[in-house]
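Slide 14.
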Amino acid sequence: MSNANIILLGASGVGKTTLINAVLGSESLITEKTAEVREYYSEELGITLVDTVGFEPREQKKQVAIKKIQEWTKDGIQKGDSAKSIDVVWFCVDGTAPRLFDEHIRSLAKAIRPWKNVPVIVVITKSYSETEQIGNMDKIDGIFAKHAKSINLKRVIPVVAMPFVISEDYMIPQSGLEYLIDYTMRVIPEGSEAKQKAIENFKLKRKRMWAQSIVLASTGSAATIGAVPIPFPDGALLAPLEAAEIRSIAKVYGIEGGTDSDNLIRMLVEMGTAGLVAKTILSGLKAIPAVNIAADILNAIVAGSIVAAIGEGSQIVFEQIYLGNKSITDTEWVKNLMETTVGKTIAGNVDEIVRILQNKGKISMSDVLVIIKRVFIDKK
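Slide 15: predicted structure.
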């Protein structure tokens, strides 16, 4: 629970700095306007308060503020650096001017997009009137309800960070601060779990992107090979390309080396050119009436589709192993996957590709690659 990061967001002048001073127990620690993202560690609480640039009304300045916040969290999401990650958000709203515009909420959502599941606490600062507190809390709950998918609002807490002197005889005391800290401590475990999931999701998304780039490059090479005027299918030509594709995808997911991974890759290659995938595609072509496409282009479609299908199927296999959902030795599951998930969709995909292209007239290799990508990869 220690060393959690609490990031303060909100428009300029809402009292983020005053709130930090109150939490840290200093009235003079921070006096200047925050121009950069700054960190203040509380040894007593074991948390770091992260002060940020305020969201300015002008669009250009607002985007600068969002960018600075995103830059600060970049290493947290990309490298899993806990020192640059978010556990809890305090979104500060001025209680004396509580009107919230949609762009403020959108700025918040954009700034914390990778961390959208971490707990958000709306802190109503300068919350001097109990009557206004109740009205403001209800109003804020209603506004945030429209953004429930992008912001994990946990609670709205009114706070008077520093005593407010009205006259010599009357002062509004500090209030709400202890409850804010106590509640924040309660949701930090949830925030830490959400933070870890955000990091894992980012890594998985990046692996998917790399894997798909490998599939695309391999598909292009396969289509080029397929367009060569020789009897097709020629497993001797596609097998090395498929093996390289599958090994590259396995490497992306950290599955390489060892007898089990070699056996799995060998099985996937065999199910490609000489096995299920090729046979399914070729049998699917026979069911398409009046295929009016030149032989070299049709061969390119078949070759590219085979490699795209085996690449997509391999990506599913390796991702499930990477996530711990399946074992690398579970070859029966792999065979079933290729037959049910991959095998049954291949013929339909090739049918769709051929039907799109057969009435196009003159067809280029670029057309073939664009359509294969659209049908096999973009549909995912």
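Speaker note: The radius of gyration is 29 Å.
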